[in-house]
């Protein structure tokens, strides 16, 4: 009983912390028309604390790009007057961040335990990984591929019918802590696999002939922190020598053009690349696992949010990958599959060209390891809710994304190499 009271007390305190932190904060969207307006956004970011939602950093802002950023409550008037003075068109996407954070929890599902239509805390997800494996021993097994900086076990689910010499697809979720819809998708996909195996011919064929390695949350420490201290946290939670600033961006921490373009060497930045490639225990665990299974892993899917994009290499260079035509063609078909359910429009293409250059990403790294089919999904939405997609959209988002993943998996199966 005492433990329960302590837990309730902690939850209440953390809820208050978050309330104090975000009440009155706004999220703006600006589309700078020229270099001069880009410069105004840069000067704004140098004068006050600005959290860039899209793109990830002020250095990636360019003319005609949608720029979404969050500012402190006491700075929003100053921001509005500066934009107005410079005749920059803007809109307020989120008027009160605290209200939007609370509004996420709009699921009609009433359960204290795990639910596929709710955002689940890490402890609930960890217990679910054990349960789903225990309930479906002929299709799902669970292993540990490493542990996080704060000592949490990184659970990996292997989904597929047992067989010999099977090839595999690796899929991960939860790289960036605040992108909650991402782990929700990995959980949904596993549910879909076990529920439709033997009923849906495509899923059955895929799981008979391929294995899926699924990492439900990569950045577990960061994810926990978004529930307890700061909903908008992005990075890992590792300490950085010589700096008070915490964490590394795990998706800038891979050895693919590491820390060159679109990544920062400043530990205080949200796109900090880390002190070296794979300096983070989480990225090292993922990279080690993939390296150990390179002969079998034929595709890599990494799930992020938001923007409604399907990206493929490269992001660290504007150079096209050798199989560009093929990747572009299948990304186009996968996007059509996704749109077929709710008409959700996705943009697709190579990362650097389609959004902005960013070095050190896991998709580029996997591709450079020889994994020909490497894709990054940026799930819903396009900015109305941003990272705070309401729970009521989890089901639709996951249903449509499953269609794209199934199409890609089936394609990989037909084109094994």
Please give a structural write-up.
- This protein is an alpha/beta fold and 417 residues long.
- 39% of the residues lie in helices and 17% in strands.
- The chain has an eight-stranded mixed β-sheet with strand order 5-6-8-7-9-12-10-11, sandwiched between helices. Strands 2-3-1-4 form a four-stranded antiparallel β-sheet, with helices on one face.
- Helix 10 (324-342) links the parallel strand 10 and strand 11 (347-350).
- Helix 6 crosses helix 13 (394-414), helix 7 (201-209) packs across helix 13 and helix 10 runs antiparallel to helix 13.
Task: Give the tags.
single chain, 417 residues, alpha/beta, 8-stranded mixed β-sheet, 4-stranded antiparallel β-sheet, 13 helices, globular
What's the SSE blueprint?
Elements: H1 2-22, E1 26-30, H2 35-47, E2 50-54, E3 67-71, H3 76-85, E4 90-94, H4 97-103, H5 122-135, E5 140-147, E6 153-159, E7 167-173, H6 181-196, H7 201-209, E8 210-215, H8 220-228, H9 281-292, E9 297-305, E10 309-312, H10 324-342, E11 347-350, H11 351-354, H12 362-368, E12 373-379, H13 394-414
Parallel strand pairs: 7-8, 7-9, 9-12, 10-11
Antiparallel strand pairs: 1-3, 1-4, 2-3, 5-6, 6-8, 10-12
Main-sheet strand order equals 5-6-8-7-9-12-10-11
Q: Summarize the main sheet.
A: 8 strands, mixed
Number of helices: 13
Give the % helix.
25-40%
- Measure the end-to-end span: 57 Å
Average pLDDT, rounded to a whole number, is: 93
Task: Tell me the total number of β-strands.
Answer: 12
Please state the CA-atom Rg, rounded to the nearest Å: 21 Å
Oligomer: single chain
Instruction: Estimate what percentage of residues fall within beta strands.
Output: 15-25%
| Low-pLDDT sequence parts | 1-17
**What characteristic shape results from the CA principal axes?**
globular
Order of helices and strands: HEHEEHEHHEEEHHEHHEEHEHHEH
Structural class, by secondary structure, is: alpha/beta
